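Table S2 (continued). Query chain:
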Amino acid sequence: MKLARVAAALALLGAPVTAFLARPVHAQMPNINLIPETQSKTPEEREAEQERDKAYKESLKKIPDAKTSSDPWGTVRNDTPKSTAAAPSTKTTAKKARTGSSAN
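Corresponding output:
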């Protein structure tokens, strides 16, 4: 009798455990669709898309090409000499004239 009770108790307690272990584990099996459903376009939609692409390409052709300089320091450096370069040379000659006249 004791053996029957132990067997019955194990059967009752073991059934939920085996059912729990036998069910699929959802955390390890994500629901990922590897083949996405793509909708096909109607002929009217395809024609409209081709017209948009054509208009876009034509508008790109209307944009003028920018003529850029290859000199990266072009905005920093001045190519034209300024008149200040000539002014110090006249001052130095004037100083020399004064120094020379006071020494004599």
